[in-house]
Every structure is written in structure tokens, then in C-alpha cells.
Write a structure and sequence with these properties.
Rossmann fold, 36% helix, alpha/beta, seven-stranded mixed β-sheet
Length: 196
Amino acid sequence: MADVWVVVGLGNPGPGYAGHRHNVGYLVLDELASRLGSGFRAHKSGRADVVEGRLGAPGSAEAPRVVLARPRSYMNEVGGPTKALTTFYKVPVERVVAIHDELDIGFGTLRVKRGGGDNGHNGLKSLRSSLGSGEFYRVRVGIGRPPGRKDPADFVLSDYSGAERKELPFQVDRAADAVESLLEHGLERTQQQFNS
């Protein structure tokens, strides 16, 4: 199983959170699942919904094997279900990709990197704690800073603006492309292409 990647979309489960900025990781995961032509199903661990397949050019034998994972927990507890999956699939932390919202990057941009702190992001904090390391890959999808004096916690748990919703499908598509590139071509090439 050593060639498998675990790609985790960070978000909060349930329809009440679906349109929130904090849930952009789920949106990107949905796009990747549709590229695999597959729907999510419950994992044996009971702690996540997963899609398994090969992500990359259609029919490519070289396309990496991937487990797309949507933890069935709130953002601040995603580490536990993710750790259960990495143990089940025998995946080391350096073959984990977390897709998450990022306040410090403007809406419409993204950054791909490996390692780093959690920058106050509860999902990343939970992953670092449960995986015992921060050396996983991150696809950081920009949501920008809240306007005026709005509390960042309220901002991430609010819906995208009307104008942003028009652009969001393009941003989600681009983030999904970045995940595919990272798995197929590695970090350096992906950063050159996507870290605009």
C-alpha cells in the first residue's frame, strides 16, 4: 500500500455548514471525487467517508492511487479520523495532503506547500497533533481576510458573497488541478504552476 496517498478535505459535516468558507476543502474533494467518477461511501473505521481510485490522466497506469477522505467530525477533531485512515492504509505522514481554507491568502489564489505551523487553523492543529507531525502537504485555498472588524471565526463560518460564489467553481477546479499535479509531478513543479 506504500504508493497510496490520503487526501483529506477539511470542513464541517452537515448541510448547515455546506456553503461556508471553512468548507472549501469539502468542495475540492467533491470535485476530485467527480473526476474519479465515484461517490463517497462509509469507511470501515466508521469515522470518515472515502473514495478510492487513481487520480490523473484517464487510463494512465502511472496515475497515483488515492484515498479521498472526508472525516465525519468537526474541523477541530479531523486529526483522529485522519490518523485512523493513515494507519489502515499504512500511509506515512509525508503522503497526506490536507485541503483547507486560508485567511492569509486572497480569495481566488492558492498555495501548495509541505510542512509548517497551523497558523491558528483548528483543523491543521488537530492533524498535527494526531499525526505527530506537521510534515504533510497542504493545498491552501485563499478566502482572504474578513472585512472591517469582523471576527475571523465568524468570517470562516459564513457563506461566500454573491460575487465570490460566481468565481468559486473556478477556484475549486484549480485547487483540484493542484492536488492532481502534486500527486503526479511533485511539489516543486506544482508550486511553479499554482503558487501564483
